[in-house]
Amino acid sequence: VIIANELLELVQFKYVDHDNAISALIIHDTFKHGLDKGHTKFEHPILASNAIILFAKEYHPEMLGVAREISKLVATHMGQWNTNSKSKVVLPLPETAEQKFVHMCDYLASRKNITVDVSYEPLCDS
């Protein structure tokens, strides 16, 4: 999200729906350990994508269109790493510019030679 916020300041990314991209980046790994909280699950993008749609249908049907857009960004966040020898699942590849943007942000965040300061100041004392 920090990387996305920086990139979204650039004019070349003005096409990206900021709210959808940030939402997708916050949510994209919510099911990384599957439903049973075991080891990393290769199909986690699909699990998270499906959960977004189910949540919207159940609690916010008026937001279903937005939920579908965000779910597509989440489903494709793995980019070119869409197959795995231990799984029959084939993840969808990013096709749209927004999907590629979300994948790029996730990829950059995963690089060990890029560090991001995540310290923050609380908005108020609690």
Describe the structure using short key phrases:
126 residues, mainly alpha, 5 helices
Helices and strands in order, then pairings?
Layout: H1 2-7, H2 18-27, H3 44-59, H4 64-75, H5 97-110
Helix pairs in contact: 2-4, 2-5, 3-4
Q: Termini distance?
A: 25 Å
Mean pLDDT: 94
The main pleated sheet reads as: none
| Number of discrete helical segments | 5
Beta-strand percentage? under 5%
Number of strands: 0
Give me the secondary-structure category.
mainly alpha
- Order of helix and strand elements from N to C terminus: HHHHH
Radius of gyration: 15 Å
Fraction in helix:
40-55%
Give the low-pLDDT segments.
none
The geometry reads as globular
Provide structural commentary:
The protein is mainly α and 126 residues long. The protein is built from 5 helices and no strands. It has helices at 2-7, 18-27, 44-59, 64-75, 97-110. It is globular, with a radius of gyration of 15 Å. The two termini are 25 Å apart.
In short:
The protein is an all-alpha fold and 126 residues long. It has helices spanning 2-7, 18-27, 44-59, 64-75, 97-110.
